[in-house]
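We give the entry.
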Amino acid sequence: QVQLAESGGGLVQAGGSLRVSCAASGSGFSFEIMGWYRQAPGKQRELVAAITSGGRTDYADSVKGRFTISRDNARNMVYLQMGSLKPEDTAVYYCNGRTVNLVNYWGKGTLVTVSS
């Protein structure tokens, strides 16, 4: 069974930085795309950043230039380095892995709170 586990969330002041990590475990899987989504209270879940197995990245306009996604294929890890954080970045951040067969796996989420 494939599992994704996020870590690294917490409380940070506006303007600060934080890195969240996601570890994938299990057997017989390969994620073509891994990504980070977030969901703020009262809002829909939205894509923050994604990265392919080849390293191609995509970002939401709201985080371009502030966030960087990276992955370690050998260790089945994906990271999101967040900088210049704003209160509107406060949300639960979810790790996502998508296989070549378009099967999605999700982590349980990690809360990031940015204080003003």
Observations:
- The chain has no helices and eleven strands.
- The two ends are 40 Å apart (CA to CA).
